[in-house]
Amino acid sequence: MKITKRLAMLVIALTLTFLPASVAPPQDADGAVFRALLARFCRSEDSRSTIVTDRPFDSTVVEKVTAYVRGVTIEDFPRPSLTRSDWPHLAPCDEIRVVDGNALATAASLGIRPGTSGFYVRFPGAQGVLTLSRPVYSANGKRALVYEVLQCGVLCGSGGLVELAWKDGEWSIAKYHPHWIS
Hints:
Blueprint: H1 2-18, H2 29-42, E1 49-53, H3 60-66, E2 79-80, E3 96-99, H4 101-109, H5 117-122, E4 126-132, E5 136-137, E6 143-153, E7 156-167, E8 170-181
Parallel strand pairs: 1-3, 1-4
Antiparallel strand pairs: 2-5, 4-6, 5-6, 6-7, 7-8
C-alpha cells in the first residue's frame, strides 16, 4: 500500500514537472500572481505612480473577507501560499514603486498617510498605497484569490478580492469582488 501511494505521488509530481507552461502554473506562482496584479497599473492612463508595500497581508485575511463577499467561497481555494517572504522589490514598470513596509509604517506613525501633503512630499507623483495579501489557490492550482486594499486618502480607498486564472501560460485577472469603498 505504501509503495503504491508513493508511486502515485511520484507519477503526479513528474507529470506536473513535464507539463507545458500553458497547462501548469509556474513554481513561483506567488511572484507571477504579484506581477499580474501590478500589470494593470502599468497600463493605466493615469500618469501617477502607485506605491506598493512589500509587506503582504497574511492569506488568512482572504478567508475572513470571503464571509462578506458574494460569489466566492474560501472552500474553492483550499491551498494557501507557501511563501512567507515579503514581496520582491522588482517593479514591473515605472508606474509602480515597491517600498519597504517599515518605511510606510514609520511614515504613518508620523501622520504621513495617503491624502496628506506629507505623503506627496515623501512620495511625489503617487496616487496612493496598494497592499496585497498572499494568494490562496484552488485545488488544481489554476485559480488564485488575493485581497487588495488601495488607500488614496482619508476618505479615499477601496478593498476587495481579486480572482485570477491561469490561462495561456500566464495569470490574468478573471473577476473583482468588491468588499468596501470610501
